[in-house]
Amino acid sequence: MTGGAGDSRGIAAGVGGGPVPEAQRSAVQYPGGLSARYRWTGTGGIAALTAMSEMGGELIDHGPLVSPTPDRLCRAELRVEGPTATWTARFASPIHDDPAGLLWDTEGLLVVKYGFLVYALSSRTGELRWHHESRTPVVAVLGSSRLSHVIVQTEIETVAVAADGEPVWRAAHSDVVAEVDLVGGRLVLTSYAGLLQALDPATGRQLDR
User: What is the pTM for the complete model shown?
Assistant: First the structure.
């Protein structure tokens, strides 16, 4: 499972003409010839997002999963071009966030986190296979070829999710998680206060540091 990003910026204009945070972009090259381009903007910045959209392929808008009026929220767009298909997916979030994706190559899924949701999309077609919603912002999505699930890290909970979207295990945290990494077969969590905690990524069992 792989992921990565780069960044550049542009100017955005909000719904109704008001200013919004600058639109941002990142590009990722995934294995298997998948080229992905992420674009995102602040509240009401849909005009800036659509101005950067590329023609061709299917466009699927997942914004209604978050709100009946997603264009009033923060918005993100993922454009994927591969050997067999080209597609675009759009997302919405009530908070400003940087979208990020993880290629789960054995399952043919591109797992994307944005705001409070995680989306599992077919890497070939962009079809939504499942989505996972959190009560707090999603910090990161992680995976490894040694695991049969992906790990969704939110600010107060770690959830292991199987290929069919069903939770495998959960671990709640008393401190807000700011960073998470897979290091040496351990899932290492860092809280906002700088406290470290290590979990077994296969079972969620707490490990001695």
Answer: 0.87
